[in-house]
Amino acid sequence: HIDSPLPGIKAFVALKGLNEDNGPFCYFESSNSFKHLKNFYIKLFFTEKNITNIENTSRTLSNELISYCENNFNLYKATINAGDLVIFDTCGVHFASKLLKGQRHLMFLYY
User: Fold this and answer.
1) What is the pLDDT of residue 108?
2) Is 96 exposed, middle or buried (0-12, 13-18, 19+ CB in 10 A)?
3) Is pTM, for the whole model, over 0.90?
4) Residues 81, 87, 92, 95, CA torsion sign
5) Ramachandran category for residue 85: left, alpha or beta (phi over 0 → left; psi -120 to 50 → alpha)
């Protein structure tokens, strides 16, 4: 998903370490400048600003766009230590991977 059609900054601090088991944060590198998302961003922006009422608009990408990201961008997985800081652009494609066991403890900061 994306958080916003406009560039923004979000950060989080891992309160406990993240590994493959407890669902690390994932981000498709350079997806914040992904030109194929242009129409998706425009549609989302107009809907959120109540300029138009487009049905079925959400921050979740279609399977086609997800597949494109998987095939064209490197996937960063934040397998990090407690206390590490991750900063990212909110219009890039990101998600929390599947929680296999344990818990994920993060403190988010929005700018």
Assistant:
1) 92
2) middle
3) no
4) positive
5) beta
Interatomic CA distance for residues 58 and 74, integer angstroms: 24
- CA angle, 19 then 90 then 38, to 5°: 125
Place of tokens 């296999």: 100
Task: Read off the pLDDT of residues 26-69 as tens digits, 9 standing for 90 and up.
Answer: 999 988 877 667 667 667 666 666 655 555 555 677 777 788 88
Would you state the pLDDT for residue 87?
94
Cβ atoms < 10 Å from Cβ of 75: 15
Place of tokens 């996937």: 75
